[in-house]
Amino acid sequence: METRELTVVAGSFVGFQLLFSVASPRLSYALTPGYGRLPPTKLTEWNSRLVSTVHALIVGLFCLYILWFDDAVNANPVWGDPSLVKLNVAITCGYLLYDLVLLACNWSTMGDSFFVCHHLAALYAYGYVLTRGVLPYFANFRLISELSTPFVNQRWFFEVLKYPRSHRMVVSNGVAMAVVFFLVRIAVMPSYWASVFATFGTPDFERLGLGAQVAWISSCIALDILNTIWMYKIARGCYKVLTGRGGRKVKEGAEASSSSDRKYVNNHTD
User: Distance between CA 262 and CA 133 in Å, rounded?
Assistant: First the structure.
């Protein structure tokens, strides 16, 4: 891993920690009086979700820029120039490390072994990108799923502030969450897998080696199975709200990213 990527990982780790402990409380107090009435455990999760949203917007929008304008990565999805992708992945790795520390420090209220395994697996997978510069197009493509995270977090904000589920903003956010989740996690599957299959048997694919090949394909299959399950739950919940049938609350699961209604995923990082 080059010095630049290490600096970005460390910088994003510190930046997200400062956002969690300093910026989020001040901003949240200014935006809504309900923040100050939350119990300590909810305050911690609120700040965590705000950081999650900021990370998702940074990484997700950067992903779109790379997809649209980085010709080197698009020309060679396996071994193209990974400079910009490595920068984006380094930001995500810094976020994952920050989130692991947060989970460890609040294990009694937020700890979940699934999220720890998810984060460690994501760090392992992205380690290939940072250290070997492989699969830049596919690593970047997967991070687009983070664009659904802000809507998931906003749903939690509405819930903890006790907005009724029939409220116009809650319904609008729920519909937007379902639509965006479908677009960035489900609708892209055919295009993504077409690009994957196109690399099979090529010299670039063989050059990866068995370890990278297995890590890449197996993780993609697992993530897409989870995304399909979560999409079903989200769509069912959205349908019940729109038709006025109520029903139990729908949780997104763990991600990606991702995440059970609490998203320490955060998606992350799919």
Answer: 32
As a dihedral over the C-alpha atoms of residue 71, residue 122, residue 13, residue 67, rounded to 10 degrees, the angle is: 20
pLDDT in tens, 29-82: 999 989 999 999 899 999 999 999 999 999 999 999 999 998 888 889 999 888
Q: Which long-range contacts (CB under 8 A, 24 or more apart) does 184-190 make?
A: 184/60, 184/144, 184/145, 184/147, 184/148, 185/145, 185/148, 185/227, 185/230, 185/231, 185/270, 186/227, 186/228, 186/231, 188/141, 188/144, 189/224
Q: Which residues contact 26 (CB under 8 A, 6 or more apart)?
A: none
Q: What is d(CA 92, CA 63) in angstroms, rounded to the nearest whole number?
A: 12
Structure tokens at 214: 């297995």
- Residue pLDDT, tens place only, 211-246: 889 888 888 888 888 889 889 988 888 888 778 765
Tokens matching residue 191: 């295009």
Hunting for tokens 């090949």 — which residue is that? Answer: 213
Q: Global pTM? A: 0.84
User: What is the spatial distance between Cα 109 and Cα 28, in angstroms, rounded to a whole number?
Assistant: 21
On whether the CB atoms of residues 99 and 266 are closer than 8 A, the answer is yes
What gap in Å lies between CA 71 and CA 80, rounded to an integer?
Answer: 9
Helix residue ranges, H only, the chain: 3-18, 24-31, 40-69, 71-75, 83-105, 107-110, 113-132, 136-143, 149-160, 168-181, 189-199, 203-208, 210-243
Distance of CA 267 to the CA centre of its chain: 3
- The structure tokens listed for 66 are 């790379």
Question: How many CA atoms are closer than 13 Å to the CA of 158, on its beta-carbon side?
Answer: 19
- 67, 140 in Cβ contact below 8 A? yes
Q: Could you tell me the two tokens for 72? A: 């080197």
SS3 label, residue 264: coil
